[in-house]
Each structure stands twice: as C-alpha cells, then as structure tokens.
Amino acid sequence: MTLGIIGLGLIGGSLGLDLKRRGYADVVLGVEADAVSAAAALKMELVDEIVSFDNCIERSDIIVVAVPVGTAVRMVCDILDRFKEGGYRDKIVIDVCSTKEQINQATHYHPCREQYVSTHPMAGTEYSGPWAAMPGLFDGRACIFANAEESSPKALKTIEQLYDVLNMRPIHMDATAHDVHTAYVSHISHITSFALALTVLDKEKDEKHIFDLASGGFSSTVRLAKSNAAMWVPILTQNHDNVLQVIDTYIEKMQQFREAINDFDGDKIRELIESANRIKKILR
Questions:
Q1: Reported confidence tier of residue 201, pLDDT bands at 50, 70, 90
Q2: Where are the domains of the chain?
Q3: How confident is the model over 153-164, as a mean pLDDT?
Q4: pLDDT at 216
Q5: How many CB atoms within 10 Å of residue 194?
Q6: What gap in Å lies between CA 155 and CA 139, rounded to an integer?
Q7: Per-residue pLDDT averaged across 47-53, rounded?
Q8: Taking phi first (over 0 means left), then psi (-120 to 50 degrees means alpha), and beta for anything else, what does residue 140 get?
Q9: How far is residue 107's CA from residue 118's CA, in Å, rounded to a whole number?
Q10: Fold of 2-174
Q11: Residues 42 and 30 sit within 8 Å (Cβ to Cβ)
Q12: Tell me, which fold does domain 178-281 have in CATH?
C-alpha cells in the first residue's frame, strides 16, 4: 500500500504518522507547497518522501486531500480527471474537509466519482502545520462518510478499513445534513471563540490586567481562537447559509441573557442556565 497525502498539516500529518506506524501503509508520500513545512514533515517522519503532485497521483494507491476546503474542491476534481486520463481504475481519492455539500456537488457527475470517498474525521486541535501532528489524534472519534452510496463498494470498504486502523467510528450521512450539523457543533464554536477573543483584546487596550486574571475557564473557551484563518475562511464561506442560521439563533439566546441581566431577573437567568445544563446529559 502506497499512501499519498496532499497537505501535511495537523490532519494530513497525523494521518501519515499513524497509518505508517500501525502498518496500514508501506510507503507514505507527501505533497506540500510550503518548503519549510515539507522539510519538517520529512524530518518528523510524518512521510517517507516529499514528491510532486503528479508523482503522488502516479504512485499512490490512496490519495488523501488534506488542504483547505476551497482548494480541495478543485483538487479532488483534478485528481478524478487524472484517474480518467491515466486509466487508473483502482486508485482512490478521499478528502478530509469539514464541509461536504459543495465538494459532493462538484464531483457528482464525474465519470470517476465512484473512486472518490467523501470523509470528515471529526478530530483536531487549534494548532496547525506539521508541528501540530500527533499520534492517536483520531482514536475514539467519529468519521463522517458523506454520500457514501456514490462511491464504489470496494472503494468504500477500503476507506472504512483505513479509518478502522485509526480507531474511528464510521457514521454515514447525507452531505447536506452533514453541513447543517457541523455548523451547530463545530463552526459556531469557532466563531464564538473568535468573537470572545476580539472582545477581550479590545478591552485589554484599556484594562492592562485582564489577561493576568484570566483563568482556566477563559482559556478553554477562547482556545479555538488560535485556529488558522487560512482553514476557517473557506469553511465559513462554503457553509454560509447554515452558519448564518446558527449565528442568528446564537444572537437570540445572547439577547435573552442580556435582557434578563438588564432587568435583574434572577428567575429568568436561572431558567436559562438550567436549560443549558441539559447539555450534561449529552456531553459526559
């Protein structure tokens, strides 16, 4: 098995690391546009070789596209074109992007669509680049397979085995539903973290001791604000409609808190907090 990974950041690097260590891949090829990141990935043994895009397509049995979603849409289509032109009927391409509807629409009518498996491993941290890659990142997490019925049974089984090696739980989902759900459970978390960071940074201009007083609660809440803009700009623009709907709901809830606090309405504040406490039954 020769695995090719295009984009050697947190997700791509961690995939290469564990799939080689756990015996799934004999050779891991890496494609990385940034020379410093490429050198780091090679030195850290996230990949065995750094190769060109063309060489990766030619040599790899499975190609993982681990680049920002805006680039991934074009890249997956380009790779499928190359499969068709080269007569590569046994190769498989997957992506690991956190929005799925646009990329599935773009590939839907491609003659090699069955060689593409649309996935989203639900794992990550606020850090980016090959330096953020770590073993065991995916263990115990869920992996979404979007529109799996459009992939060939053989390709789907192969990629399910790949994620099984990473100890991930497979969940099959429609691409449109996926984007709605991730807007609520992932994308809004990042937006609120960015907004909180901006709020505190604005106040810090006048109050020099805010960060001296910051506790663990603040650190955990604002942690996601460290996330890379290059990754999040295309995610939020691609999932535009769903994200706006979630933001509107979030603003509505914030307004309820504001009005209750403004009115010194302790009963309403308690009601809102206790309603929120129900999340404990879901997240343990």
A1: confident
A2: 2-174, 178-281
A3: 98
A4: 67
A5: 18
A6: 22
A7: 97
A8: left
A9: 10
A10: Rossmann fold (3.40.50)
A11: yes
A12: 6-phosphogluconate dehydrogenase C-terminal fold (1.10.3660)
